[in-house]
Design brief:
The chain is an alpha+beta fold and 164 residues long. The relative contact order is 0.12. It has a 5-stranded antiparallel β-sheet with strand order 1-2-3-4-5, sandwiched between helices. 26% of the residues lie in helices and 20% in strands. The longest helix is centred in the N-terminal third of the chain and has 12 residues, at 3-14. It has helices spanning 3-14, 20-23, 61-64, 75-83, 143-148, 151-158, and strands at 67-68, 95-104, 107-114, 120-125, 132-137.
Length: 164
């Protein structure tokens, strides 16, 4: 029995007085009646210390290391995204996939050689058919990559970045 339940039972019994068979003794009995009044005890609102934070999901083995994507996307799909909806690359610039795409979880990392420009790093996420651009540039160690990216992508994107 828990402590609050035991205390409640004890208070309930204490308010009843002596049983009738004990009240009829040869010596006069003093009868005392205890009344228990229930007064609500104020409770403090929960604080951050009282409420545990939602646990972060543990990385799976496929999140820890970025490796060639078994089910895509292809390098051409990443280039198409950058030339299309993302508007990062003009249509007339020559691009060659140097590295990747490498996958960790549902994130991808690709390095592109762009003629006449610095190499372009690209971080994407999602299914190959619904690829979304996270970031592209010469430094892709963004807040989103550091905060939400799987370890395998963070390692590639933030290698050599101080404080990453």
């Amino acid at each position: 029995m828990s402590l609050p339940a035991a205390l409640a039972a004890l208070l309930a019994l204490a308010g009843c007085g002596a049983p009738p068979e004990l009240r009829q003794s040869s010596t006069p009995a003093v009868t005392a009646t205890a009344t228990a009044t229930a007064t609500p005890t104020p409770t403090a609102p929960p604080t951050a210390v009282d409420t545990p934070a939602a646990p972060l999901p543990l990385p799976t083995p496929r999140d820890l290391v970025a490796s060639p994507c078994p089910a895509g996307p292809s390098g051409d799909r990443v280039v198409s995204l950058l030339r299309g909806a993302a508007g990062v690359l003009p249509r007339d610039v020559r691009v060659r996939v140097r590295t990747g795409p490498l996958c960790a979880g549902d994130w991808q990392y690709t390095v592109l050689e762009v003629t006449g420009h610095e190499e372009l790093q690209v971080v994407t996420r999602g299914r190959p058919s619904a690829l979304k651009l996270v970031t592209a540039g010469t430094d892709v160690c963004s807040v989103e990559v550091r905060a939400a990216g799987p370890p395998g992508i963070r390692t590639l994107a933030c290698a050599g970045t101080p404080g990453a």
